[in-house]
Amino acid sequence: MKTGHVDGALPAVSFENLTLGYDRHPAVHHITGDIPRGALLAIVGSNGAGKSTLLKALVGELKPLSGRIDYHGHHRNDIAYLPQVVEIDRSFPISVFDCVAMGLWREIGASGGIDGACAARVAGALEAVHLTALANRPVGALSGGQFQRVLFARLLLQDAKIILLDEPFRAVDAKTIIDLIGLIERWHAEGRTVVAVLHDIDLVRRHFPQTLLLAREVLAWGDTPAVLTPVNLDRSRRFNEGVDEHATVCHHDEARETA
ABC transporter domain location, by residue (predicted)? Predict the structure, then answer.
């Protein structure tokens, strides 16, 4: 049975018996299912459950050990990705405005200039994250929450159809979380597909209609109330007790599943 399916919704991304790992040691086993177009999906699970690994595979940073990912005609430029750790040297003297403008690099190139239309788009993105007054401030002078707003503004400029967020609210203040959730819900209302790795179960219940619960394999995937049950969450909490860090790639037995 395929998981994650929503009746009437075309898939944005599909997994077919997908196994991911590092140095032939699997981190995620045999995922099959669809992420529908326009979905607002949370990925939850214990540490080491494979959540970030799955996002890295979606963005093309990690190749499958077996199985495949189908993007249904989407291309790399259709995907925007915010990893847990962003490789920006905040000691480098770059302004908030210029850092946000980096979200346009796919359009203008690494050495492209910012014309009036592009500058207006950057200004609009800054306004959307409430950073207009800080446009000329060095990024190194920002708080953690302010810097996360900068990163969300860059995502706005990418105008992507699929948005992947890996722990976007880690070490961020409550006001910033509220404002950034507003942006995520705006993307959802625009019909974009948003997938976020999260730890805050209450936040997931309040704002994410669908959830994928991982423990190196799919424990549950579907409507959030049906996924985040006490039984499923207890299974997730007990996941680390049975982890074998040195396991090798296992072979999927289709006959046993259909028997």
Answer: 13-241
User: Would you say 4 and 212 are in contact if contact means Cβ atoms under 8 Å apart?
Assistant: yes
Q: What CATH number does the domain containing 203 carry?
A: 3.40.50.300
Asked whether the beta carbons of 67 and 151 are under 8 A apart, the reply is no
Structural domain boundaries enclosing 167: 1-74+162-172+193-242
**Structural domain includes residue 57:** yes
Residue ranges for the chain with pLDDT beneath 70 = 1-8, 87, 109-112, 240-259
> By CB neighbour count within 10 A (0-12 exposed, 13-18 middle, 19+ buried), where does 28 fall?
buried
Residue 127 lies in a domain: no
- 22 assigned to some structural domain: yes
Provide the token pair at 161: 């159809």
79-82 and 162-166 as β-strands: parallel, antiparallel, unpaired?
parallel
Give the model's pLDDT for residue 226.
Answer: 98
Q: How far is CA 205 from CA 133, 170, 208, 211, 212, in A?
A: 34, 17, 6, 9, 12
